[in-house]
Amino acid sequence: MQKKAYEIRKIKYRAHFLYCIVDSDTQRMIEEPTEYLKYLMNRHESPNTLRGIAHGIKYYLNYLSEEGLDINSVMGMRYDEQFDHFVGFLNWVKSGNHTEREKLPSNKTCNSYLQHVFGFFLYIERTHEVRGGIKVLEEGSLSYGGHGGVRLSRGIHRFAGYLRKEQSRGKSVYESQIKTLIDGTDSVRDKLLLLLLAETGFRIGELLGLRYAKDIDFEKKAVSVRSRTDNENEARAKNSEERSGSISDSAMDLLKIYISENRKRIKKSTYLFLSEDTDTPLTYEAVYALFTRLHKKTGIKATAHMFRHYFANERRKAGWSIEMISKALGHKSIKTTEAYLDIETEELAEMMDGFFDTHAALYDIKKLI
Fold first, then answer.
1. Does any domain span residue 59?
2. Is the pLDDT of residue 262 over 60?
3. Which pTM was predicted?
4. Is residue 1 part of a domain?
5. How many CB atoms lie within 10 A of CB 149?
6. Engineering a disulfide at 132: which of 11, 76, 268, 320 sits with its beta carbon 3.0 to 4.6 angstroms away?
7. Residue 52 lies inside a defined structural domain of this protein
């Protein structure tokens, strides 16, 4: 594949990282998209969200370059020309022209890239003097339930040319596979990380942001997700969600062993999960590398997100309601149902404790002693 016109550069900006779009040849920063990404960073969008948006815009700018177009020429197109142009971008991405990866993206991924592009265009319309505009977006509203039966709504933009949604279900990992993965590493830290993923249903970013002194309740055998935007490893609680999750006796015993072996380092850093050779917090990249190593060793191809599916499936089998599972997972969709909002933390903790009381421990802590 020939060299693309634009690429992404990640730079340190104040206390955060800023994603910039730069010219591949000159490394000159491209003003408008970088300005938009800075705006989103200042709105405290998560690093993962910012990275995804940056890639979507980069792909689109490369598409424009290949088509011999620019932002202003797209703004000046007629409705039918714009429509064909954006459908063309979707098909260009769907065919894999945006990357060197062999695996083609899903329709959902292609649509999300275009949604990021539309967000960029709408920002340009609001902040710059431009001729024309985006004509292919239809304005609408989304209604959902709020407190006390009040119906709320928010404005949305629709595009009729999105690729058809594919029928798919998120993949899960099974209990036997989790046990094999845990046995596949000699690191107490990695065993603990895998076990907490399975028992709490937390996102990997939520676990990477755990602080030793503030987020662990040893008496109640619980860990808490806190909303922080200053984590050194860019870990983030999605949707600024704060909640707690109970863990089993085995997980708590393993947690105590890990802390005992790394007490000085953990106290110095304040983060629970640390890198192997330094006192810096564990990163997303290190977790991806862990799953890659375990795949090679065990033959099980798993991701941290698959543990959330495991958590949901097992709680559903145990009789949990969908509302309780959504609360435990911290899903944003909780806003759409009043029942989600009425769930009390104490009720959730009682249900989690009952689950551990009536189900065998996932992992035998005696293997480590």
1. yes
2. yes
3. 0.67
4. no
5. 7
6. 76
7. yes
Shared-domain flag, residues 214 and 340: yes
Question: Cβ distance 113 to 93 under 8 Å?
Answer: yes
Same domain, 262 and 237: yes
Question: Nearest Cα to 201, choosing from 296, 308, 101?
Answer: 308
117, 88 contact by CB (below 8 A): no
> What is the helix (H) or strand (E) element at residue 20, kind and residue range?
strand 16-23
Q: Which residue has the tokens 């022209």?
A: 97
Spatial separation of the C-alpha atoms in residues 351 and 369, rounded to whole Å: 30
Question: DSSP string of 80-146?
Answer: HHHHHHHHHHHHHHHTTTT-S-SSPPPHHHHHHHHHHHHHHHHHHHHHS--SS---SPEEEEEEEE-
Q: What is the CATH number of the domain that holds 257?
A: 1.10.443.10
Q: How many CB atoms are closer than 10 A to CB 329? A: 21
336-366 per-position pLDDT tens digit: 223 323 345 555 666 667 777 777 677 777 7
Q: Within this chain, do residues 102 and 245 fall inside the same structural domain, yes or no?
A: no
User: Do the domain assignments include residue 122?
Assistant: yes
**Residues 243 and 224 sit within 8 Å (Cβ to Cβ):** yes
When divided into structural domains, the chain yields a total of: 2
Q: Are residues 235 and 119 in the same domain?
A: no
Q: Tell me the DSSP string of 263-317.
A: HHHHHHH-BSSB-SSSSSBP-HHHHHHHHHHHHHHHS----HHHHHHHHHHHHHH
